Amino acid sequence: MEVIATLEEHALKEYKWEDEELWISNYVARARIKTDYKVNSLLHHEVSPFQEISIVDTKGFGRMLVLDGVPQVSSKEGFIYNEMISHIPIITHPDPKVVGMIGGGDCGPAREAMKYSGIEKISVVEIDQQVTDVCRTWLTPSSHYDSDKRFSMIHKDGVDWIQENKGNYDVLMIDRSDPVGPAAKLFNQGFYKDVFECLTDEGVAVFQSGSPFYNTSTLRKTYHSLCELFPIVRTYLVTIPLFPCGLWSFTIASKKFDPLDADLSRLKAEDTKYINSEIVYASFVLPNYVKEILESN
Amino acid sequence: MEVIATLEEHALKEYKWEDEELWISNYVARARIKTDYKVNSLLHHEVSPFQEISIVDTKGFGRMLVLDGVPQVSSKEGFIYNEMISHIPIITHPDPKVVGMIGGGDCGPAREAMKYSGIEKISVVEIDQQVTDVCRTWLTPSSHYDSDKRFSMIHKDGVDWIQENKGNYDVLMIDRSDPVGPAAKLFNQGFYKDVFECLTDEGVAVFQSGSPFYNTSTLRKTYHSLCELFPIVRTYLVTIPLFPCGLWSFTIASKKFDPLDADLSRLKAEDTKYINSEIVYASFVLPNYVKEILESN
Hints:
The structure is a homodimer.
Chain A: H1 6-10, E1 15-18, E2 21-28, E3 33-47, E4 52-58, E5 62-67, E6 70-74, H2 78-92, E7 98-103, H3 108-113, E8 121-125, H4 129-138, H5 143-146, E9 151-154, H6 158-163, E10 169-175, H7 189-198, E11 199-208, H8 216-227, E12 232-239, E13 247-254, H9 277-283, H10 288-295
Parallel strand pairs in A: 7-8, 7-10, 8-9, 10-11
Antiparallel strand pairs in A: 1-2, 2-3, 3-4, 4-5, 5-6, 11-13, 12-13
Catalytic activity (chains A, B): S-adenosyl 3-(methylsulfanyl)propylamine + putrescine = S-methyl-5'-thioadenosine + spermidine + H(+)
Keywords (chains A, B): Polyamine biosynthesis, Spermidine biosynthesis, Transferase
Organism (chains A, B): Metabacillus litoralis
C-alpha cells in the first residue's frame, strides 16, 4: 500500500486503520450515519489555509477528492454532478455568452460548458488555489481546458468576486460544498441577492441545494430564499452515489426563462454519460415528499 | 440505551460498539464500502431457520428491519420502495384482479395494492414466517391488512409456490432481497420462466433488479433474462436512501401492456408519499450510463 508520510503526522480523524487496511469515513452528524470507503492508496494530502485536501484511490469510486474529510467528487461518478449542474442552466438560457462558476475547483462543470460554442467566456472562481492545483495533478489533466481561450480561473473569495461583477453574467453555477467551513457564506440571503445582481436581466443561476432526505432545511431555505428574488425557481433531483443517501438536489433560479421550456435541441449530449434530452424534464419531476419540503415553511 | 441480552450472546458481526455507542454496519464487498447507522436501541433480535432478523431504532431512518446484517426497509423511507414496486405494475395492467407477491414479509407493497378496489385477491408469499411476525410486532400493525378479505399470507418457498400457480396471476411483484441466502434462486433463468408461466396471457411482473451503480451485473442479467421471455421489458429507477449509494432499479416484464402507455388516471396516489402521476413516466427515463448497462452483454 502506498501511503504518504503525512497521514500519521496529521492523524486525520477521517482516516482509520482496520485489520491493516486503511479506510476513510464520511460522517453525517445530522442523521448519525457514516459511510466508509476502503482506501487502496492515499495518493496525496496537504493542508491549505482553507481546508484539508486529499486525493485517495478507492475500489468503489476510483480517485476521490476529499476536503476536510468529506468526499467531493470521484473519477467513477463525477460526471453525474458535473453534467447536471451545468447543462440544465446553460440550455435554460437560449443564448448564453458569459458563464461563471463559484467553487468547483476541479473544473468539471467548466469542461461541460466548453461544449457550447456560443459561450464566449467561462470564469471559474475557486477560493482555494491548492484545490485547483491538486485536481490538475491527480484528477483532471489541465490540457482539456487550458487550451480553451474562453476559460479563466480566478482564485478569489466567491462573495467578493460576485459583488464586483454586477449585471455581467448570463449563467451562474454555484457549486458550493456543504454550509460549513469556507462555503457557509454562500448560503446567506445576502449572497443570493449578489447572485441576482451579477446576472443580466435574462440570467439563470443554479445552486447545489443539499440532500432532500437527511438535510431538508438546506433545500427548503435555498428554495424559499430564491423565491423572494426570482420569478422562476425550480428544484431538480439527481442521484449521486458518492453522497450520503444518494439523493441530491439542485435549485435553478431564473429571471426570464423557464427550464421546463428549454430548447432541448441545444443540449450538447453527444458524449455525456448521464444527461440526455429526456433526463432534463424528468429531473424536475419530484416525489411527493420532496414537494412537501418545498411547500412547507 | 435499551439493548436486548442476545446481542452479546450472538456477537453479531454487523454490530459494533464505538465510544459506548452501538452502531450497525452494512458492508458491500463488491465496492468495499460500509454504511454505519447509529443504533438508538436494538429492539429485537432472533434467528430463524433462514436468517438473522433484527429490528433496530436509528436516528436517521427510524425503525429498520435488518436481515443477516443488511437493512431491508425503514419506517422513515420504506414508502419509497413499497410504492414504487407496486403501483407501476398495477397500473400497467388495465384491470388486474389477482395479484401476487414473492418476498416482502413486511407487507408494505400489499398495503399499496389494497388501494385498488378492482383487485380481488392479493397473495403474499414469504418464506420466513418469523419475518412476518417480527414486522407485525415492530413495524406495521396488522390491523391495516388483516381486515381486508382479499389478502392472504402464504409461508412457503416462492419457487415452489410459483410452480403451483400457473396462468393465474395478472400482476406479480418479486420483492426479492440480494442474490445471496434464501433469495439466490429468485435470480435464476428457471425462476423467470416460472414467473412467465404463473402470469395470465396479459400478465405483468416486476423484479427488484439491484443497484445500477455498484452491481451492474444483477441489473444486466435480470434485464437480458427477461428479454428472452417477455415482449416488453423496461427498467425504472428510484432513489432509496437506505440502500448503499442510493440509486436502485426495478425491471418490469410484461406480456401485452407497456408501462409507458399506462392509464395514469387509474393511479391511486391520494395518500402516497413518493409516487404521483408524473413520477411514473419520469422513473423510466434512464441516464446514459444506465442505458449502457442494459445495452451491453
